[in-house]
Fold this protein.
Amino acid sequence: MESSDLETLRNFWGKDRVLLIGIDLGTTFSGVSYGVWKDPSVNGNVSPNPVVCWPGVGNLSTKIETAVSYDDSGDCSWGWLALEQPNVMSWFKLLLPGDGELHFNVNDLKEVQQAKATMQRLGKRLVDVVGDYLRMIFQYTLQYIRQERGDVADVLPFHIIFAVPAIWKEKALDYMRQDIRLSCITNARPNGVAKTTYRFVTEPEAAAMAVVPEFTEPFEIREVVEGSGGLCGAAFLDNSFRNFMKKKSLDEGLIWDELHREDQLHVLTAWEGRIKNDEVRTLFDSLKPEIEKLVRRQVIAVQEKTLRPPKYILLVGGFGQSPYLYNSLKRTYNGHVTVFQGKGSSPSSCVSRGAVICGMKQQVLIHSRISRFSYGFVLDKPFEKGVHHKDDKYFDESRGYYMAQDQMEWLVKRGDDVAIREPQTFYYERRIDHRARGRREFREVIWESRSSKPSNRKADLDNDEDFMVAKSILITTPPVEQLPKIKHEGTLWYLFAYDLKVEVSGASIKLSAKWTKDRSVELIAECVNVVVGA
């Protein structure tokens, strides 16, 4: 069950306590945090706890390798242990958006090519690989929680919060839903424990929630400008450093890839004092321009929209712990923007910890988001000369006046500030022939456009490759005999009027259609997860 309304979930669970689990599926490393949610009327808030001990990792760490391998019998290894096996696959997260959905070509990356080739050779689908990884990391997390907290992992309902990239759209989330289903995470629980539920939040949203307690001044969080991303995280720095070490080891007569992981760590320790600072700086400098460009774009966009610079730049994630990156950005924005960097393991676990906090409706302080796409419906409107195109004009006998067919009703446009806590309601109506009987079905299609200023005429958009179906919602009427009748020029029609409610929560839009009769409201259709913020 996918949901974002914790109060509804609490009624569904019938419990005052729920185990919240935040999962940060990363490109090269992943992390998990957990916390026990208690009804505020009973006792307080959630304190997220990161998982800090993983299989195959000698030292305490909040992250585990995002890697999967399969032996000849099909058995799966994961994390650090997968790196010691053949048929290892990593970086597969980058394939989830699908070809053509990212602004950069991930298929050119060697690690991605290797993962695709291995999947093809083993007959594995992407959803199989990601599903297996999620299953293994989730099962280990439950084992870890049992050791830390006793039986809470066996008696409490689970609400799982998956952090996803801000640039993901609906196709990637659909893949994630398939992965979650195949992982068996949402399977029925024994002993009558309520069914597991889950939701998505964006990684920046989760990270922001994690660092909120570190600020003393009260404030609320709003997404001011559209987020962006690039292939320039710690994964690419690690890859550059690995290639650097391969060259270094060849100079010493060693073949880096043939060394055991523990031997590689030993070599790194032995050579730590022999690697010159300018050599390491060269590795960072290969990625620094792209990171600075992304930050600069965000700062400029905030200034253009608010007429003032942002107050803070928050560095999170593994790369967010880099002193070199911190000092570089601090020099760039000295006196204009405060660069904030957490210490210790805090930055690397902030996304998974923030995801846990986002699992509590009462704790979500992000009041609005910026839509990444324009979403709307097609409908006919009363024809207005000078407003509508003459080719769209037709006479509607049920109304007795001219209409303009196939006009767009945009619910939200790209770049709009969409308030999370303020649902919008739109009124729609359909006329049905008076000779009809029983229930009628019709489908309302939700269209999406990448344009921030899409045309209000569907005919103008039909040949636009960025205009496509996002979702459709099937609406079933009550028996038409129960509907009110209207009469025009001697002809009777059934009038079916309904409200379409639009609610924004986390990384999705929830749509529901409701019909009102005799002061009672009947839900006639519901459609969730039309992405606005991912």
Q: What stands out?
A: The radius of gyration is 27 Å. Residues 374-530 form one domain. Residues 126-149 form the longest helix (24 residues).
